[in-house]
Amino acid sequence: MLPLTPPDEHGSPYASPSAFAAWPELMQSEGAPSMEEEEDWLEDWALYAAIKEDHDHKPWFTWPLPLRNREPSALEAYREAAQHHRRRQQRFMAAWNQLSTKANEAGISLIGDIPIFIAHDSADVWAHRELFQLNENGWPEYVAGVPPDYFSEG
Questions:
Q1: CB atoms within 10 A of CB 16
Q2: According to a count of CB atoms within 10 Å of the terminal CB, is the N or C end of the chain lower?
Q3: Is residue 148 in a domain?
Q4: How many CA atoms are closer than 13 Å to the CA of 78, on its beta-carbon side?
């Protein structure tokens, strides 16, 4: 399977705005319970998604400085909107757990792919800038990638 992460603006799940969040458009379970133990990444993802939505889906490094720098008072304004994104992740995970359980019971193995790199415009980089070699403006000091393949040449 392709990665289950949200795709970028070009539709690619390999440059996802999250290394951990799922793309809730794939499936939802309406009767999903709340996650008993909230995942560490979920709060960052929910805030990032709410802020990005409010800023016309522009990259985090173009947001106003208080949001870009995760100032608590600036983030507080988005906590309610973030609940929607948190709940969508919970509904996806409930549906995914149901699907994977049924597949496993039927003897079907689900094997998926994952991206090689974390996208610059992602909740992960925004929330953990100290883990990435970024300059003072939030831009990468170094960039790596995969060269184009036969199918990407027009």
A1: 25
A2: C
A3: yes
A4: 24
Tokens of 112: 């998926």
Tokens of 108: 């079907």
Q: Given the structure tokens 């999250």, which residue do they identify?
A: 18
> CB under 8 Å to 39, separation ≥6 — which residues?
20
The per-residue pLDDT for range 19-51, each reduced to its tens digit, is 999 999 898 787 666 655 568 899 999 999 999
Does residue 82 belong to any structural domain of this protein?
A: yes
The one-letter code for the residue type at 70 is R
Total domains in the chain come to 1
Does residue 87 lie within any of the structural domains? yes
- How close are the terminal C-alpha atoms of the chain, in Å? 25
Q: Are 112 and 9 in contact (CB under 8 A)?
A: no
Q: Are 61 and 121 in contact (CB under 8 A)?
A: yes
| Distance between CA atoms of residues 92 and 67, nearest Å | 27
Answer yes or no: is 41 within a domain: yes
Global confidence as pTM:
0.86
